Each structure stands twice: as structure tokens, then as C-alpha cells.
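FAQ: What does the model actually see?

It sees only this:
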Amino acid sequence: MADATEAIKRIGRLVAEYRARSGMTQVQVAEQDPSLNRTMISQLEQGLRLPAPEQLEIIFDALKIPEQLWAEAVHPEYLRAMDFQEQLSELLGKPVLLDHIDGVSRRLAVDAIAQLLSRGMSLEQSFAHFNSILTFYGEKPVSKQFFERFLGSGAFSSVSSLKGKVQDFQKLAIRLYGSFRQAFKTLRSCDDIDKELSPLREIDEGQFTQRRTFSAINKIPTIRLDDLGYISAEKVRRQSRERQELSSKLLELAATLKENPKTGLQQVSTKRINRIQSLLRKFDSPVKIETTLFGSTDPELLEREAKRIAPEDHDLARIEESQELGLRNLAAYLTEPYMDVYIATSMREFADFISVNNFVENLFANPEVAHLHLRYFNPTQSWISDRVAKGLVEALMLKRARLTVCMAQKSDTFGKDSEASVALGQGKPVIVYVPRLFDEPTGINSESLMQMSDPEFQQAKMSVELEEEEGVDRQTEVDRILSKRLSTLPLTDIARIIDNHWADFDLYGEIEELPDSQRDSVRIYLDALTRRGSSEARPVPAANVAESLIWRLVQVGLFFEKRAKTFREIHPLALQVILSSGVLNGILVVRSPAACAKVMHSLLMNRLETELVCDNENYKLIEVNTRSTLRVISKHKLLTNAFWTQYFED
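And it is asked to produce this:
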């Protein structure tokens, strides 16, 4: 595509080529007229500056360059016409040039463009004149409807005005079409543009607010959420079976010892004794089976331990009750007439259930979306035992939902990635929530530190009196700032931060890396913090426990900062092709439930604020608030040609 800069370079290359053919030097060319000088010729050949039209004619005549090659270049409005041509290329979605017509026609084309840009024509006049210019480029005329919708007479008050109109068209086109060419060809003669663009029409909130309140789901208590987890529930059942096995074996052994106090143990196989001892260790039992010659085992002690170890039926009963509630909730989800949001996540540990449920509750209680009565599939409140049925449920919810919210965790599962890919492939929006280390009262914010400008970051370092270190990257310095800030906070603040992050950051899993001497005390504190009753005060950690957890909080916080960058820029899910249209669909990355609610509201109402960013490789439609890439059109011409000639069979 040729703008004024490229036009100057083209003329410069032409002059350099014919000067070389003639054997003349730049000085000799400059000597052809007093108005010329060597610097002028040099700058022209380098594509830096175009001389005045009358000077150009002297140069062309001196080098005997055929007029066919330069006729339009001596028009006073040539450079502005080339800038117009660049914007026309962007609008049409393909490079357009005047090279295929004769020199006289090219000059007429430049003159026609100059008139359009300078005469202040009426709407009717500019519409007719614009279509006549398209003829010079071998393009069919646009409809009056297209012209009024995307251009109008105001588009031609200046080239910059035209550029703004073209970018508005491209921002709209990139949402629905895989190429700007496809968009232009579809819309230029479309009978009803409003109908064609209806998927982008702003939606009235009344469509949501007039619904009945979403109250069909019976909330399962937080402490019981992992009863719905396949792994955790099976773990309880397995432990129950093992407790029952151990209790029975202890009673049998006790009976044997009572019947034969001296030789009873000799009647029991070594394999059976080893199994009993293994189970005793598993359940932290203080009882030991003495198998030495002079050792003895008290049968009454075994009976007492058998009674203590025996499984309590209420654990299994509780799980069955929780799963029954989950099954009822599933029935409610399946029979809801609407489904707006699907929550994609993976849940294995207790912390995962807490993390997901807290996020979902905070998200849909946010004022941005609370009044919309949205229907959303919360996986922490649903249950079905069969693996195949579970997959069908998720596929159905994913298909029905208007958008998907995917929770980024410390590691992603195949299932969660697949769900996000399917949603993107269906052309639906996908929001990825990546947690951050954040505490508003103390100003702790890992996200803002990573995104600060250099001057702002210098101020942040000075605020904690951080010494300068050579060759240290931003992440390392953020690590030092966060660690220093956290280490100076009162322990009550540390307790609040731990309480707000332990589930998202999986601190139980993190402390497994601590030395044995620290791990037990940290786990005891986490148990006291996370398992306390709703009316119990938040416990405060000891200084050494706080130190251990601060270290892990910072490390996981920085890990999530890298994950957020990965999702925005390089994750395989960042862009997926919409199967029905071939359009590249991108994910939106958010860092808080509030940010997620804001983006979700904009998506549901079709009110996203976007900007078009162009680089050497792509056109990118960027969502302003999250700085995420929503749509992409590649500038790679062969790839684009191959894609659009081969993607659709017809």
C-alpha cells in the first residue's frame, strides 16, 4: 500500500535508476537548472524529500524519463493523493495503485482526489465523486447506504478525517469478518447493512433485568464443597473403607491374643501384621504391634484403638447429602430457560472449591452485573456421578452460554483448556481470570508494579528504600518490593492477606516445599485460619509462620503475573479460529472479580470499548480496559490468500 512516503521512495528509485543509465552524477543533474542542487537530488534518491513539481519536471527531462512513468508525480496534490490512496487501500482491504492506467489517466485520478479533498462537496456530490474515483482503481461503486454509514461527506475534509472513518470501519469489520476485503465486498452493496451488522447491535439491559431472580440453586455450605469433588469424596470413602478394615483387623487380633496370650501373634501371618502396622501409621495411631520375642501387645488397647479408629457414618452421610444437593442443582441448571455464563475451571483439592466459589460469588454480586439476573453455571454447586454424563453436561452448558469465564490456576488441565478452545471456536467471548497479589488497605498490588512506567517504578523502589542493583529485571525488583512491604506490615494485616489468598494461591500445596521444621507449624496455622467457624475471629500468625507464608505469597503472586502475560501474548489459547467464519477470536484477561464483571457487562450489552492497533505483522483489535487482543487480521499476504481460498470448501 503506497502512502506519501512510499510515493517519494518510488520516484527516488526511478530517478536513481535513470541517472545510473545515463552515466550522470548527482552534481551533473543538479547543474541542469539553478533551482536544483546536489543535496536535493541526493535526498530525492534516498526517498527523503520530493522537490517542487516544476523542479521534478526539469529532473525528469534531463534524465529522459518517459512521461508515462511520472505524469501524476508533478501534480501539486500528488503526495496528498497518495496518502488518500493509502487509506483507500485500507478501506478496500487490498493494495490499490494507479500503475495499470496511462499517465494522463493517472494525472486525472490525482486531480479527482484533490477535488474530493478540497471542494467541500455535499453528501450527494461526494458520494458520486468517490465512486468515480473507485473507477480509476477498477473497483465497483459502493451503495449509498454504505457511503452514508461508513464515510459521509465529512470523511473528506482531510486525509486524517478519512483515516479515522476507515479505522472505525475496520474496527467494526474485524469483529465479524476474517479479512477487510471480505468485509468491504460484503457491505459495499449489502441491501440491509443494519441487519448484516445486527450481531454488534447494542443490547437493552431490559432483556436481562425483566427476568425473574435466579434463585433455583440450593447453596451448598462452603465447608462441604469438596464433598462434590470426585477425588476428595473418593478419598473419604477410601479412608472409611481402610478405617473399617483396620478396626476389624484389630478386633480380630485382640480376640486371638485373649484366647492365646503367649502364642496368639504366632498364629497371625507376617503379611497381615504388616498390613495392620501400615494402616496404624497411616492414621497416626500410637499403637504398635510388638512382634519381638519378649514384647507383648495389650488386647484391650487394641480394642480401644479399634473403637477409636472405626469410621463414623456421618462423614459418608454428609457426602451423600451434599451430592444429593448437587444433583438437584444440576437439574435446575439443565431446565433453566437461559444460560448466560459458563465457569470453566478444574477442581481437585479443597482449596480449588473455595477459590472457585469465592470468585463466582464475588463476580455475580458485583453491582456491574448483579441487577441483570444472570444465569451462570457454577461447577462447585453441581454434581453427577457418571463421567460421560458430566462431560455431556459441560458440553451443553458451554454451548448454551453466551460467554465463558475461565479461571487460571497454577496449572491448567486438558479439560479446562478444551472448554476455552471450544467456546472460542464457537465465536463466543472467553474471559480468563488470573489472580494477583492484592490488598487494597495496604496498597499491595503485584499487577500494578509489573505494569508501572519506569519513573513510577523508580518511585515505588524509593518508597521502600530499595538499593539499586545492576542487571536486575523488573520481576526480581517487584519480588524485592513486595517482600519488603509485606515484612513491615502488622501481623493482623498479614493474616487478612493470607486469608484472602490462601485458596487462589493454593498455600497448602505451596508449604510442601518448606523444610520439615517449618511445615507443621505453618499447616497448623492454615488449618486454624481456614477451618474456623463463621463467628470466630481471624487468628494471627506467629512471626516465623508469617515469614514463611510471605515468601510463598510473593512467589506465587509473581508466577501469576507471568501467567497473565502469557495469556495475553503467547498462550496457545490466546487466539482461536471461529469455525463458522474463519475469524481469529482472542481471550480477554482480567485480574479481579470486579474487572471481570465490568468486561462481562460490556460483552453482554455489546458495549466493548476497543481500539485498532497496527504493526508490521497484524491488525489487532484491542479491548481498552484489559489491553487484551479481541480480534486479529494478519498482514501476511500469502498466508491470507491461502487461508481464504482453502478454508471454506465453497
